[in-house]
Amino acid sequence: MRFDIITVLPELLESPLNHSIMQRAKDKGLLEVHLHNLREYGLGRHRQVDDYQFGGGAGMVMRPEPLAACIEKLKSERPYDEIVYTTPDGVRLDQSLCNRLSLRENIIIICGHYKGVDERIRQKYVTLEISIGDYVLSGGELAAAVLVDAVGRLIPGVLNDETSALFDSFQDNLLAPPVYTRPAEWDGMTVPEVLLSGNDKLIDEWRHEQSIERTKTRRPDVWEKFEGGV
Ligand code: ADE
After folding, report:
1. pLDDT tens per residue, range 152-186
2. What is the DSSP letter of 172?
3. Of all atoms in ligand 1, which is nearest to the CA of residue 130?
4. Using a 6 Å cutoff on CB, does residue 131 contact ligand 1?
5. Is 133 a pocket residue for ligand 1 (Cβ < 6 Å)?
6. Which of 97, 108, 163, 186 is deepest in the core (most CB within 10 A)?
7. Gap between the Cα atoms of 47 and 221, Å rounded
């Protein structure tokens, strides 16, 4: 799977995508992430990428020409399944959207900045607008990093048995159960007896019950989906 990320701040994305599971996915040849500095497509001597809003108002808007030039160049090199724009007014990212995106081959992500991108870029190119939550970040880069991480780890072969995504929170519309490691007693608190029993069936049952309990109390909205079999 390949991500091409268009950004005015490539430095912001370098570290989060070059460690741990993302790095392993790249090393295994399962994931490619290419950063494109929009400034290289900027206009004039100052490589301008933004301008004032028509109609007035505070904040700059990303001009269409540099974005279009970068997108067209990428599109001339390979077909893309999706052109994503990270924006607070997009659809909310959730596990089921991540699952669906992990089946795609080539995705462009446009990181918004300032007041966002000129609306005509959204109309002409963008196929999916994604928000990572109801709050406003100072740019789309961190949202893009979240997206690549959440989707990249689902690509078959990226995770091994130990880190398998099958038991993640949300994967079956339930939150994950509590987990414990050694020591069996710490600070006066013990590990639930059943986890030390060696009885896989009982352990599975206990984990399932805990997942249900957690989901009901912490995320009634997610519990509703589970009950409805969504
Ligand atoms: N850009 C700024 N805020 C964002 C958010 N919440 N999600 C995605 N992109 C963003």
Report:
1. 999 999 988 656 777 787 878 899 999 999 999 99
2. T
3. 8
4. yes
5. yes
6. 108
7. 46
Please name the amino acid found at residue 142: L
Instruction: Give the separation between CA 99 and CA 173, rounded to whole angstroms.
Output: 13
Q: What angle do CA 48, 72, 15 make, to 5 degrees?
A: 65
For residue range 102-130, what is the model confidence (pLDDT) as tens digits?
999 999 999 998 799 999 999 999 999 99
DSSP class of residue 18?
A: S
Q: What percent of the chain has pLDDT over 70?
A: 98
Both tokens of residue 198? Answer: 């060696």
d(CA 189, CA 177): 17
Secondary structure E strands in the chain: 2-7, 32-37, 50-52, 60-62, 82-92, 106-111, 128-131, 185-186, 189-190
Domains of the chain and any CATH numbers:
2-152 (3.40.1280.10), 169-228 (1.10.1270.20)
66 within ligand 1 shell (Cβ under 6 A):
no
